[in-house]
Amino acid sequence: MSAVERRSVASLALLYNVRMLGLFMVLPLLALYAVDVAGSTPALIGVALGAYGLTQACLQIPFGWLSDRIGRKPVIVGGLLVFAAGSVVAAMADSIQGIILGRALQGAGAIASSVMALVADLTSQEQRTKAMAVVGASIGLAFALALVLGPLLAGFGGLEAVFGVTAALALVGIVVVLWQVPDPPRSGIVHADVGARPRLLRVSLRNRALLRLDVGIFALHFVLMASFQIVPGALESVVGVGREDHWQVYLPAVLLSVLGILPLMRVAERGGRHHLVFLIAIAVLMVALALLGLATSPWLFCMALWLFFVGFNYMEAVLPSMVSKAVAPEAKGTALGIFSTAQFLGIFAGGAAGGWVLQHYGIVGITELCLAVVAVWMLVALPAPRPEHAGLPEAAP
Questions:
Q1: Do 202 and 283 reside in the same domain of the chain?
Q2: Which segments within the chain are labelled E, that is strand?
Q3: Exposure b/e, 4-36, CB count within 10 A at least 16 = b
Q4: Residues 160 and 279 in one domain
Q5: What's the rounded Cα separation, in Å, for the pair 286 and 280?
Q6: Phi, psi of 384 (to 5 degrees)
Q7: Per-residue pLDDT tens for 142-173?
Q8: How many domains does the chain have?
Q9: How far from chain centre, in Å, is Cα 387?
Q10: Do residues 109 and 80 touch, judged by C-beta distance below 8 A?
Q11: Domain of 282?
Q12: Lowest-confidence range among 41-45, 93-97, 207-211, 369-373?
């Protein structure tokens, strides 16, 4: 990469990281701290947890289209301002409905597609895949940091402190955009690997390989949001760890998940066993979810949490690359747009459905719900991949 490309990618990765950090920090906290908020029920807490996913899913493509018309930076700055406003609303809320509104506003700052388009604007075709991988990796880093920083911040000032820091991070993101990210050329080109086009949208929706991957990312984030409505409480009741110290469990579980991910990747690369390892990773998630709901001893619960992060982080890493490999270059942006929309819909559905089930059927009900969703994913992914004839090449699984 050239010096300008390195600066661009580093700045945009930092921007993505600080934004996602603010969103992820709420994940291990809301189920614990929102219980004391006026009007809260498990169902409404679930809606609050997933609300940003719905607005993200609805506005991702329109914001990307708008950035093609008026420029990337104005849209990104505007989205960060909306995100900051949502964080302030959530921080000042004295009811669960106010938190839901704030979370929905956070999601309305849907700038992911605009950021990835800006990455394309500022990098050469040869370096673009590497650049997007670096930016994508910042999401995983943000997730790990959020599980540590969220409980620490909440221990000092509750949800208000977490949402306040989230608003500050959005303002830091604006500074990065305006003073660190180079200005892109105004060429009027919509990059094939980040833009969505109607004809390719129709073709992508007929490609069964892509649809299986869309089902996968939906299921993965559904169970993430649903399961984290019981995980924080179990850390207190089963493991006996105070809420301000939850990071002491999350951090080693996330870091040690690498010890499970690397063997999966090695086996996948040997003899092209990607499909087999893909199915094994789904099975690992199923085992982890069953243990998370049923474990009554601290060591078994911690083992289940480790297995969950092994399966989740492996899938989070390989699913986007599978989508990218499954389509021709001119269809990549459309396929990834559909994929991202499925991810955000999974976040909303997992939060809302998980909260409702928890309220009416308890921990056993939410465990059964998560297992059912992953079982459907397994059935969808089970058939061996075969070539498609819809105009887009297909890759496993």
A1: yes
A2: none
A3: ebeebbbbbbbbbbbbbbbbbbbbbbbbbbbee
A4: no
A5: 10
A6: -65, 145
A7: 888 888 898 889 888 888 999 999 999 999 88
A8: 2
A9: 29
A10: yes
A11: 196-397
A12: 207-211
Report DSSP state, residue 123.
S
Please give the Cα distance from 341 to 333 (Å, whole number): 12
Judgement on whether residues 83 and 215 belong to the same structural domain of the protein: no
Residue 4, pLDDT > 50, answer yes
Which amino acid, residue 137?
A
Q: Which helix (H) or strand (E) holds 242?
A: none
Q: Mark 154-187 as b/e (b = at least 16 C-beta within 10 Å).
A: bbeeebebbbbbbbebbeebbebbeeebeebeee
Q: What angle, 0 to 180 degrees and rounded to 10, lies between the N-to-C axes of helices 3-24 and 72-92?
A: 20
- What is the DSSP-derived secondary structure letter of residue 191? -
> Six-digit token pair at 335?
């396929």
How far apart are alpha carbons 280 and 275 in whole angstroms? 9
pLDDT tens, position by position, 282-334: 999 999 999 998 888 999 999 999 999 999 988 887 887 777 666 665 556 66
C-alpha span between 12 and 60 (Å, rounded): 17
Q: Is 301 found in the same domain as 169? A: no
